[in-house]
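Sequence, please.
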């Protein structure tokens, strides 16, 4: 039995080593895409920068850094190669959304539609690996509920000028991927945390007021990155 277990462990290490040969180039390639893709998208949409060079550089560095940290965490925690590639692609698109929305106040469908397709592929792939098939209709229901809830919220509380259609679509895609589970709780926590880290210093410095229009896409983007990593945290983190 001991010999068999040792062989299994050796085979597992060999498999992880082979996967790393693919994972590391994917990690590097996606990181290299992030600085260049936002400009291409804005050019296709005929949008111009609404921020200066300093802020554009800063948000690119921050977004790239969050991507690198979250994707490195994913690289170390996700054993399945296909899942790693799919989730890494969503991380990359989220980083691009953060940059684009900061620079020109739009959340492009050129990022959201691929993200939705990748999320669907992720769910189907894991269903084929043994996950429950009900996860797919549950994801669709979660997406529709998120859309309905946010549209109702914007109309009732008159947030229409603050929460745009792109923000609602982005949250709906996140709900499709995460469903209403602890993963979306992780996303919400990371979203709120990123808002606090940005808004409090800006309020204290009097650079924004309660009437200032703020792009919410970056906060959602950081939340999605956090939500993807959240599902890999050990249960002891939540149980104390």
């Amino acid at each position: 039995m001991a010999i068999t277990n040792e062989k299994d462990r050796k085979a597992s290490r060999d498999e992880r080593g082979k996967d790393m040969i693919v994972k590391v180039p994917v990690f590097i390639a996606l990181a290299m895409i992030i600085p260049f893709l936002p400009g291409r998208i804005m050019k296709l949409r005929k949008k111009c920068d609404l921020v200066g060079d300093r802020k554009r550089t800063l948000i690119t560095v921050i977004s790239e850094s969050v991507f690198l940290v979250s994707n490195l965490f994913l690289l170390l925690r996700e054993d399945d190669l296909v899942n790693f590639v799919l989730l890494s692609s969503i991380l990359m698109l989220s980083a691009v959304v953060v940059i684009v929305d900061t620079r020109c106040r739009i959340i492009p469908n050129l990022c959201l539609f691929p993200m939705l397709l990748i999320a669907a592929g992720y769910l189907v792939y894991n269903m084929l690996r043994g996950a429950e098939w009900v996860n797919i209709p549950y994801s669709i229901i979660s997406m529709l509920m998120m859309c309905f809830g946010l549209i109702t919220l914007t109309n009732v509380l008159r947030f229409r000028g603050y929460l745009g259609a792109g923000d609602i679509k982005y949250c709906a895609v996140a709900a499709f991927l995460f469903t209403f589970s602890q993963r979306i709780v992780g996303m919400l926590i990371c979203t709120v945390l990123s808002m606090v880290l940005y808004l409090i210093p800006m309020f204290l410095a009097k650079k924004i007021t309660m009437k200032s229009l703020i792009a919410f896409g970056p906060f959602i983007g950081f939340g999605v990155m956090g939500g993807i990593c959240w599902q890999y945290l050990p249960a002891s983190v939540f149980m104390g």
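The two ends are 35 Å apart (CA to CA).
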